[in-house]
Write a structure and sequence with these properties.
Nucleoside_phosphorylase_sf, purine salvage, single chain, binds 1-O-phosphono-alpha-D-ribofuranose, alpha/beta, transferase, five-stranded mixed barrel, purine-nucleoside phosphorylase activity, 9 strands, Nucleoside_phosphorylase_d, Rossmann fold
C-alpha cells in the first residue's frame, strides 16, 4: 500500500513542524545536509546528536527505501551546527512531490542558510568511472517537464516568488570550494563536475532512454535531488549538491551489465569516507565564510 499523499503543505504546517523540532534541541543549524542512498554515514559524523525518527516528527513522511535510515539528526560537524536528513524521500515511494520536498522548507524555518545534498547516480558521461564524485553544476528536471514541479499549486510569498530563477541554482562559489577542497584532499583523479538528470523511477533506464539523456546533455541520472534544489532556491537558501557515480548506465544492447540497487549501495560504502570528508571540510569553510561576511 502506498503511503498517504497530501497535495501541498501550508506555511503554517511547515512552521508547526519546525517549531516542534526547535523546542526539543538547542542546536540552531546553519547548514542542512541531505544524504543519498547508502550515504547516511555523514549523519553519524555529527557530535552531540539529538536525533528524531521520521515517524515521530509531525507531518514527516516515512523512509521506505533500503539505504535510507529515516532519521533527522541535529548536532555539530567539526563544531558547526548542522541538521542532517539520514534518508530522503522519492517520488516513486508514492508521495506527492510537495511531500518529498517538505523537509527542505522545514530546514528554512529552522534557520538553515546552506543546503548540501548528496545522491547516488548512474554515470552517462563516458569519461566517468564508478566511484567518481560529480559536483552538480546544473540539472534536467524531467518530472518538471511533465508538470510535476514541487512549486505547482498556490504560491506562498513567505517562502518565495511565483516564478523563481533557476539559472543560478547551484552556487558557483560552493562548486569552486568543492573543487579546491577536493584537490587539497588529493581527490583530483575522481572529482568531476556535470549535469544531473532526475527521472521519476523506480525502474532504471532503458538503453534508448539512457542514450537520449546523454544526447540531451546529462552526465549522470538519478531519481532525486532536483525537486529539493528547486524548493531550496525558491526560499532563498544556497545550494551545493554532488552525485556519487555508483554504476555506469547501460548504453549498449549487448552489455551484460544490469543496473541494481545493491551495486548502488556497495559503491556508496566504498566511497563513503572520502565523500564525508569532502562535505565536512566544506562545512567548516562555509562557516568561516559566513563568520567573515558578518564581521565585514
Ligand atoms: O538519489 P538517491 O536518494 O541517492 O538514490 C538513488 O539510488 C536509488 C536507486 O538505486 C534511487 O532512489 C536513486 O535516486
Amino acid at each position: 500500500m502506498f503511503p498517504e499523499t497530501k497535495n501541498g503543505y501550508t506555511y503554517e504546517d511547515c512552521k508547526a513542524t519546525a517549531d516542534w523540532l526547535l523546542a526539543q534541541t538547542d542546536v540552531r543549524p546553519k547548514v542542512g545536509i541531505v544524504c543519498g542512498s547508502g550515504l547516511g554515514g555523514l549523519a553519524d559524523m555529527l557530535k552531540n546528536q539529538v536525533a528524531f525518527n521520521y515517524k515521530d516528527i509531525p507531518n514527516f513522511p516515512q523512509s521506505t527505501v533500503h539505504g535510507h535510515a529515516g532519521r533527522l539528526v541535529f548536532g555539530t560537524l567539526k563544531g558547526r551546527p548542522c541538521v542532517c536528513m539520514q534518508g530522503r524521500f522519492h517520488l516513486y515511494e508514492g508521495y506527492s512531490i510537495q511531500k518529498i520536498t517538505l523537509p527542505i522548507r522545514i530546514f528554512k524555518l529552522l534557520g538553515v542558510e546552506t543546503v548540501m545534498l548528496t545522491n547516488a547516480a548512474g554515470g552517462l558521461n563516458q569519461d566517468f568511472k564508478v566511484g567518481d564524485i560529480m559536483i552538480i553544476k546544473d540539472h534536467l528536471n524531467m518530472p518538471g517537464f511533465a508538470g510535476n514541479n514541487p512549486l505547482s499549486g498556490p504560491n506562498d510569498e513567505r517562502f518565495g516568488v511565483r516564478f523563481p530563477c533557476m539559472s543560478d541554482a547551484y552556487d558557483r562559489e560552493l562548486q569552486q570550494m568543492a573543487m579546491d577542497v577536493g584537490q587539497e584532499l588529493g581527490y583530483g583523479d575522481f572529482l568531476k563536475e556535470g549535469v544531473y538528470c532526475v527521472l521519476g523511477g523506480p525502474s532504471f533506464e532503458t538503453v534508448a532512454e539512457s542514450r537520449m539523456l546523454h544526447k540531451l546533455g546529462a552526465d549522470a541520472v538519478g531519481m532525486s535531488t532536483a525537486p529539493e534544489v528547486i524548493v531550496a532556491r525558491h526560499c532563498g537558501m544556497r545550494v551545493f549538491a554532488l552525485s556519487l557515480i555508483t554504476n555506469q548506465v547501460v548504453m549498449e544492447y549487448d552489455s551484460a551489465e544490469k543496473a541494481n540497487h545493491e551495486e548502488v549501495l556497495q559503491t556508496g560504502k566504498e566511497r563513503a569516507e572520502q565523500l564525508e570528508r569532502l562535505v565536512s571540510t566544506m562545512v567548516t569553510k562555509i562557516d568561516q565564510k559566513l563568520a567573515f561576511s558578518i564581521v565585514v
